[in-house]
From TrEMBL:
It comes from Thermotomaculum hydrothermale. Residues 189-208 have a biased composition (Basic and acidic residues). Belongs to the GrpE family. Homodimer. Participates actively in the response to hyperosmotic and heat shock by preventing the aggregation of stress-denatured proteins, in association with DnaK and GrpE. It is the nucleotide exchange factor for DnaK and may function as a thermosensor. Unfolded proteins bind initially to DnaJ; upon interaction with the DnaJ-bound protein, DnaK hydrolyzes its bound ATP, resulting in the formation of a stable complex. GrpE releases ADP from DnaK; ATP binding to DnaK triggers the release of the substrate protein, thus completing the reaction cycle. This is Protein GrpE. Keywords: Chaperone, Coiled coil, Cytoplasm, Stress response.
Length: 208
């Protein structure tokens, strides 16, 4: 009886050992699968990383080329920006050359004058098409931003500060002043005195 029990215990213990070995084998197989999956995932990540790195390098190179091309275009725009304007002005030079090439005895003054006027108009049209505007303020109020007073004259027949003569026209390019108009400005004695009195009164009131 005792012997049978011993045999049973021995068999039971062997069965437990076999089950543990089976479980260990299964665990090892699972670990191998996990390790294989991890290796495949690492390989996939490396390949993806290599592609991303290659794409990044290509993008950096493209950006660098774009930057260089943009810089060159900017330099060319600055260097040759006035080429079309200068080409148009050359047409005016050609017209002047034709005008002065005519022998004096074969031309009359009126024809010569009209020819020069046409050349002047042509040149102004070129400047205006390029965004240049003329400042001719005769009979307009004096504006210190666009006019330079060269002379003043006493006048009681025009408002104080009126431009009565333009010695040299001014010009502006788009919204930037190229040069102010050089002008003569009228001083109306009565209005001028009234302005000075008003300014003195305003100053006095502000000080009180």
């Amino acid at each position: 009886m005792t012997k049978e029990k011993g045999e049973k215990r021995k068999m039971g213990g062997k069965k437990v050992v076999e089950e543990k070995e089976i479980e260990e084998v299964k665990d090892n197989e699972n670990l191998k699968k996990q390790l294989e999956n991890a290796k495949n995932e690492i390989k996939s990540l490396k390949e993806e990383n290599a592609k991303l790195k290659e794409a990044y390098i290509r993008k950096v190179a493209d950006f660098d080329n774009l930057k260089k091309r943009t810089q060159k275009e900017k330099e060319d725009a600055i260097k040759y920006g006035n080429a079309s304007l200068l080409l148009s002005i050359l047409d005016v030079v050609d017209n002047f050359e034709r005008a002065v090439a005519v022998e004096p005895e074969k031309s009359d003054f009126h024809s010569f004058y009209e020819g020069v006027r046409l050349i002047e108009k042509h040149l102004k049209d070129i400047l205006f098409s390029a965004g240049v505007e003329e400042i001719n303020p005769e009979n307009q109020p004096f504006d210190p931003f666009y006019h330079e007073a060269m002379m003043k004259e006493m006048r009681d027949d025009v408002p104080d500060g009126t431009v009565t003569a333009v010695f040299q026209k001014g010009y502006k390019y788009k919204d930037r002043l190229l040069r102010p108009a050089k002008v003569r400005v009228a001083i109306n004695p009565k209005e001028h005195q009234e302005k000075q009195d008003n300014q003195a009164n305003e100053k006095k009131e502000s000080e009180e």
